[in-house]
TrEMBL record:
SUPFAM superfamilies: ADP-ribosylglycohydrolase
Binding-site positions, Mg(2+): 68-70, 316, 318-319
Lineage: Bacteria, Bacillati, Bacillota, Bacilli, Bacillales
Cofactor: Mg(2+)
Protein name stated in the entry: ADP-ribosylglycohydrolase family protein
Keywords attached to this entry: Coiled coil, Hydrolase, Magnesium, Metal-binding
Keyword Lyase: no
Length: 383
């Protein structure tokens, strides 16, 4: 039986793995990836922007296992739990989490230097600093007005860990915490992914169990997108080697819930032009979580193939890889991950993924034990 510690290691290492798999090809379309790479099969992949001038790529480097903000933010959230030793809410977003991303230096691999995580973050993640530090908002209103994206969901897996085996509690805590960062379907995705990770810790859990949990807890467009995409994935299992067909059908469904499609880059010609990109809606969903779940279903939980199919589908490739990875990492534990991949991730990112995971595992286990004691105390009320 896979231990709790092994599963936590699986989640943490899979965050880095999925991130590093997808980072070199992020924002390329499915066809663009096919044209330039054929198919990405390894973390040892050269970044498609690496030959551009340094100022064009904002001084960043990627490829060969380098991770991005998905991993850095996940570690930052674990650090908050390590500091507080309890469940979190939006006030912790506006306190310790802000300190982790904006006031405490760490090694940022893309920049190859010790600096603040916020120096690397995308605009909707920088919004955390603006709202909580500069605007001094009510923490529970921190996500209001933000661009709606996957930014909260991409680092939310630790909340699933501290609520392992209790998906509804994971969903609730993720919403309470991430409302300090995101809103609308971006917030909803964070809750659902945390619930999927919590469910994946249950011994004997199946892919169908996890999807049922996601559909059961998800609301509005997020629920509809997950349900429709995973149903389509089941129908396409016999044709999963025909990736052209799989991607075409998945993305056609997703277009109903995410109007951006392949139009993921910002440029001067789009300034002032109205669109529905990043705007709140009860009808829409982020793309990354439904796609990750669909690839897990398509491949019946095969670890590497699910992640690789996800990142090769294009667009927000690293976050799709992370979301598929953390669910499957929780299911299987770290043994499913290649030792050489873990060694490369540690080396190039100056990390010790298992040490990070083990420290957090001890904290998470204590939080769960406190919950169980409280549950038993409540049970006595009925006796």
């Amino acid at each position: 039986m896979t231990s709790f510690r092994d599963r936590v290691r699986g989640v943490v290492a899979s965050t880095a793995l999925g991130d590093a798999m997808g980072a070199p090809i992020e924002k390329l379309t499915y066809e663009g990836i096919k044209s330039q790479y054929g198919r990405v099969e390894s973390i040892m992949t050269r970044w498609h922007k690496m030959d551009l001038p340094a100022d064009v790529r904002l001084g960043r480097v990627r490829g060969d296992g380098i991770v991005t903000d998905d991993t850095l933010m996940t570690v930052a959230l674990m650090n908050v739990y390590n500091t507080e030793g309890r469940h979190l809410d939006a006030y912790d977003m506006g306190n310790e989490f802000v300190k982790e991303i904006a006031f405490r230096k760490t090694f940022v691999p893309e920049l190859n230097q010790e600096t603040y995580i916020i120096d690397r973050l995308f605009y909707p993640e920088k919004y955390i600093f603006m709202r909580h530090v500069l605007a001094n908002c009510d923490p529970r209103e921190g996500g209001m007005g933000n661009m709606v994206n996957c930014g909260a969901a991409m680092y939310i897996a630790p909340i699933g860990i501290v609520n392992a085996g209790h998906p509804k509690a994971a969903y609730d805590e993720a919403i309470l915490f991430a409302m300090g960062h995101q809103n609308s379907y971006g917030l909803e995705a964070a809750g659902v992914l945390a619930a999927c990770v919590a469910k994946a810790f249950e011994p004997g859990v199946t892919v169908d169990d996890i999807v049922e949990t996601a559909v059961g807890l998800a609301k509005d467009g997020t629920k509809a997108a997950i349900k429709e995409l995973t149903n389509k994935a089941r129908a396409l299992r016999a044709e999963r080697d025909d990736m052209d067909k799989v991607i075409a059908e998945f993305q056609a469904i997703m277009l109903k819930y995410s109007p951006m499609g392949d139009d993921v880059s910002r440029h001067i010609d789009k300034v002032g032009v109205p669109s529905n990109h990043y705007t709140p809606s009860r009808l829409w969903s982020i793309e990354e979580l439904p796609m990750a779940l669909a690839f897990i279903v398509l491949n019946d939980g095969d670890y590497y193939r699910s992640i690789l199919d996800g990142v090769n589908s294009g667009r927000d490739t690293d976050s799709i890889g992370v979301m598929a990875g953390v669910i499957l990492g929780a299911m299987y534990g770290h043994e499913v991950i290649s030792t050489s991949d873990i060694e490369q991730l540690n080396k190039v990112n100056r990390l010790d993924l298992f040490a990070i995971a083990d420290q957090f595992s001890d904290v998470a286990a204590n939080i769960i034990k406190d919950d169980l004691r409280a549950h038993e105390a409540r049970r006595s009320i009925l006796e």
